[in-house]
Amino acid sequence: MTDRLKVFLVDDHGMFRAGVRAELGDHVDVVGEAATVAQAISMIAATEPDVVLLDVHMPDGGGRAVLESIRKSHPQVKFLALSVSDAAEDVIGLIRAGARGYVTKTISPDDLVGAIRRVADGDAVFSPRLAGFVLDAFAARPDSSLADPELDQLTNREREVLRLLARGYAYKEIAKELFISIKTVETHVSNVLRKLQMSNRYELSRWAADRRLL
Q1: Are 89 and 161 within one domain?
Q2: What backbone torsions phi and psi does residue 204 show, to the nearest 5 degrees?
Q3: Is 50 exceeded by the pLDDT of residue 144?
Q4: Which of 35, 48, 160, 161 has the largest CB neighbor count within 10 A?
């Protein structure tokens, strides 16, 4: 019998982690879990799992910050994004950062176990709709390896603000959605405008639509 895969959970919602742990327990060894970026980086390095199930949107840089840190020190660890978000920006961003797959939290337990095993074997795994985002990105930029220098200069929080702004959210609505102050929203928008060298939210909306960030 082959050794059971070692899996680590990263998500800032404790009840969700408990549910995933219960569903996976008969199939893999869940060797640890973390609710913050710093905790995840430290514990993944200590446990050296085969696969990390990684939430995308968390405080302090989100799942991408965890992935980018661990890839430098433990390149053998593979990452499978498990997120409520099905936004093209999130999918492409995580794959560009080095994740081997991306599935949404609506996935069935059996399918999740299968996805973990495939990622551990080196395959790329996506929910059907999300695979289209990746294929479209490669088709649009066949020689760039999904690189987008303009998008890469934005922080995760700036991208979140940009996406909501492009969807037509008012500053007050963005603040409520992201649990931040209106002043902080204004600061993020100013930073995005400056980095992208644009002058207003309408230009930002067109820019975001061109990249399917909505």
Answers
A1: no
A2: -65, -40
A3: no
A4: 161
Token digits of residue 139:
């088709």
CATH number of the domain to which 64 belongs: 3.40.50.2300
Mean pLDDT of the chain: 83
**Does residue 13 share a domain with residue 73?**
yes
Closest to 132 (Cα-Cα) out of 162, 90, 89, 88: 88
Q: For a pLDDT cut of 70, what percent of the chain falls above it?
A: 86
Q: Give phi and psi for 81, each to the nearest 5.
A: -70, 130
Average pLDDT estimate for 113-135 = 81
Shared domain check, 178 and 130: no
User: Which pairing describes strands 101-104 and 51-54: parallel, antiparallel, or unpaired?
Assistant: unpaired
> Which tens digit of pLDDT belongs to each residue from 73-90?
888 999 999 988 877 777
52: tokens are: 């990390």
Indicate left, alpha or beta for 155 from its phi (over 0: left) and psi (-120 to 50: alpha).
beta
Are residues 30 and 7 in contact, defined by beta-carbon separation less than 8 angstroms?
A: yes
